[in-house]
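hey can u check if this looks right to u? its 85 residues, i copy pasted from the old doc so theres a chance i mangled smth
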Amino acid sequence: PGDIVLEIGPGPGALTEALLDAGATVFAVEKDAVLAQALERLQTQDQRLHVYNSDILEVSVEALLGDHQNVKLIANLPYHLTTPI
């Protein structure tokens, strides 16, 4: 509870939902517009889910996260994307 998590490529949101259920605040960056829109169904009453329909390679992570520090990063990505990220 209370963790700030940047989730890259949440897809349909199985892990996103578990993180929210555990009390985390999740910044989810999903490239696929349909999947990004579908994630909105997981929104919590206290608005701990922030969904961005963007390519993580084109996003300013600093601008996205604002003043949040000690952010945890999770992702399920192809290996070739890990270095540029």
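The longest strand covers residues 25-30.
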